[in-house]
Amino acid sequence: MKSKQKTQGGAPHSQRRALAFAVAPFALLGLVALPAAAQQPSAQRSAAARRQQQAQVTGAQAELYERWRANINLNQLAAFEAGREYVGKYPNDEYGARVRAWVEAYERGARKAQFEALLFKEKKYAAAFNVGKQVLADEPDNLRAIINLASAGYLASNAGDASFDAETLGFARRATALLEQGAKPSDWKPFTGQPDALAYLNFITGELILKETPAESVNYFRKAIASEGAIKHTPIIYSRLAAAYVASQYEPLSKDFETRFGGKEPTPESKAALEEINATVDRVTDAYARAVALSETEPQYREARARWMQELTRFYKFRNNDSADGLDVYIAGVTAKPLP
User: Fold this and answer.
1) Is the pTM of this model over 0.85?
2) Residue 150 in domain
3) Grouped pLDDT means (10 residues each) for the chain, 340 residues
4) Disulfide-capable partner of 150 in 172, 305, 306, 326 (CB 3.0 to 4.6 Å)?
């Protein structure tokens, strides 16, 4: 595997600490003794076994081992390539075990770097999700990886690939539970801290369950908005909150009203039912107005904003005698009000 961490000056100091360890070189062409550790008497290895292993060390093997060892702190990609070759050719000797441990540690670090590069730089979300699962297999309790997997899966779904949705929902809920219990990732980036990360994870959860359980998604969206996270300042969450209100409250209430009271004279019961619908319409109107207000200067929301404005106008007219008078003023002041 090629690593994103290739540098002529070696890998970052923190990774070098994790991966590098001092190992003496093989004897080269019989001119230098084997590493000191190999010369020490051992209950598990007889003198005859040591002599046999010395005899089996070839010049090519020694050269390959030295190429791995010498590059550990100089060029870790070169060390990795030499180490992988060594393990493939000499998997069963004492030195192969040492090299294998280093190679496996390097591969784990490389997978972490590749995961974050695919997610944050290259924006290849499906590929990032698949590599991220490998990272989590390496480190099952890696909270940062769990959070980033939730993000990668959501972004892949948002881009049209919903194949990861079920797993993504599981990662979002798992990460949320861990954060609420006080767990902390190794690095909060790209979030500013726990409230920011929790708000985003609650948004992802609400988005992924919106079609199946819109009433539950309302709770997650409102929880995300109540947190001091960046997501509360984005128009998308309010448009999704409005959609959740419509699916879970407005549509069933309207259908029930039409079934029970359509074409009939008003009654106290029908008036109470209509007031319940009106309260729902007010929440829908508020949410769409926030989406429209927050997207006014954001070019990426131009098409979506037109749709939100159309829905906002429809619901606003429902509560204002089929008139849009005062709508602009309503939009201008909506973000200064608390969420109803």
Assistant:
1) no
2) yes
3) 42 39 34 35 52 64 88 88 88 84 91 96 97 97 98 96 97 98 95 96 98 98 95 97 98 96 94 97 98 95 96 97 97 96
4) 172
Domain interval for residue 89: 13-110
Instruction: State how many domains the chain has.
Output: 3
Same domain? 161 vs 220: yes
Give the chain's end-to-end CA distance (angstroms, integer).
53
Last residue of a domain, one of 72, 87, 110: 110
Instruction: Report the chain's C-alpha Rg in angstroms.
Output: 31
Tokens 């309207």 sit at which residue?
254
**Inter-residue contact 270 to 256 (CB < 8 Å):** no
Of the three residues 167, 199, 233, the one that is the final residue of a domain is 233
CA 60 to chain centre: 45
Does some domain include residue 272?
yes
